[in-house]
Fold this protein.
Amino acid sequence: MTACLCSLFIMHCWDETKLIQEIVTDIQKKLNRELSSSFDSKRLVGMKSRVEDIESLLSFGSTGVLIVGIWGMGGIGKSTTVETVYRRNCSKFEGHCCFQDVREESRKHGVDHVRQEILGMVLEKNDLKIHGKVLPSAIKRMLQRKKVLIVLDDVNDPQHLKYLVGEDGLFGQGSRIIVTSRDRRVLENACAEDKIYEVKILDEDDALRLFSFHAFKQDRPIEGYTGLSKTVVSCVKGIPLVLEVLGGNLYNKRSVEYWESKVAQLRTNGGEDIKKHLEMCYHELDQTEKKIFLDIACFFGRCKKDFLQQTLDLEERSGIDRLADMCLIKIVQDKIKMHDVLLKLGKKIVLQENVDPRERSRLWEADDIYRVLTTQGTGSKVESISLILDATKELTLNPTAFEGMYNLRLLKIFYPPFLKDPSKEQIMNRKRVGIHLPRGLHFLSSELRFLYWYNYPLKSFPSIFFPEKLVQLEMPCSQLEQLWNEGQPLEQLKCLAKLDLSGCSRLTSLPNNIYTLKSLKSLNLSGCSRLASLSNNIGVLKSLDQLDLSGCSRLANLPDSIGALKSLKSLNLNGFSRLEVYQIALAC
């Protein structure tokens, strides 16, 4: 539960929670109505007519359920267009959802997970549970009574679309579903022929305006650059993503000779090769900017800006804003997003580093990672590893698996998330398979900034593992019994902001010197069922604002020092079986 008062009471306040949710929903609807009245002239150049055409196809005044398909090449502006349609109209519906990157999310987490997320948002039920492929009758009835607006962005499989949309009559009268795809055949199976809209390239005038907004921060070229600007626009054939990135790349470059060299490169690349145009802009970045670009493309994907900043040195952080200025990423409400065309470009650049994965800087394909981890003394160039575990495959590693990876900064070993409320059999299966280290682990890089390892199989970390730059340490459902031996200097972990030990059922205690983690903001101990006590020193963690003790069934009491946590905003005691009501006087 959360509190921002000087006294925190752990009790049920369902009526207040419901009231707050209703107020937030009402405010959101009013904001959406305000957004619907105007277009962002910079962001939506050339899109007003697209939006109006699509809204016409949606026939909002008619009854029945309509599916409208949006078709076009990557980078042409499909996502931006449908997102605008959604924002302008979602307040007219009783339930709504705009789900982006269906293709990628289905690949990572499974189409069942995607469906559950979509229906949970439409029904405004964060705890929605769907077991199996068939929707329960109760959920069907709720959906049939709701007039909904659903956007499914970037669908590439007709079977996925059929599964996500459901059978006829699933949604209430007046519902509208918008689907975007690069493959017209995906849409033809679900949409009437006259309900498929092709997003075309921008005409010359709109293309020049969009390019000018990014190259000159105004809607037309500055004096002396009109001819060159028109040549650039002509070379890239009115593709919005390329116009934005090239414009950002040329911003503040006030040398005619430089522009002429760029035009020559564009002509060499050929007008239709989007990736070559974008790769040209990548090579204009400095080393820090390239590093951040590849980290996002090959490891983080979407992430929060403040978190990404924490994984970088102070002098590197300005590189994030530089990437945004060049339109290689977008930052909206502190969240970083990279277009999937650019994500693929980043991975292509890394694959081109070397045919041998042991000589590449970033790894994300399971077979490549297995090869590197099972070949002793390799991986000196590896900076990031993102390994999605296979629930049917086991991997036994030697203690020296990570030796030689002195430059490893980012490590994530994980399963795709379960559907909500997984069975005990599913949980136990994941604990049986995965990575095994029967002879222990000798080494992990001290350069690590981010470490996430689901079901880490050992009782503790390597004794010489002290990553001074580590920002996030997440070890859910691991076999850890202790983090480090008592007496080891935790104060070396001066950057650690998040510590997640959720589901570590063998963990019996935390180090007494945990108070030395001065930067710690979030501590998750949920499901640590053998944790019997917390050190009274925990009250010294002045930066701690989130503490999760849910499911810590052996905890008999809380240390009085919790009241000294000046920054504490969230304290979760769900399942705290020995404590029904607890009052804590918080420092103000």
In short: The mean pLDDT is 85. The chain is about 35% helix and 15% strand. The CA atoms of residues 96 and 149 lie 5 Å apart. The radius of gyration is 26 Å.
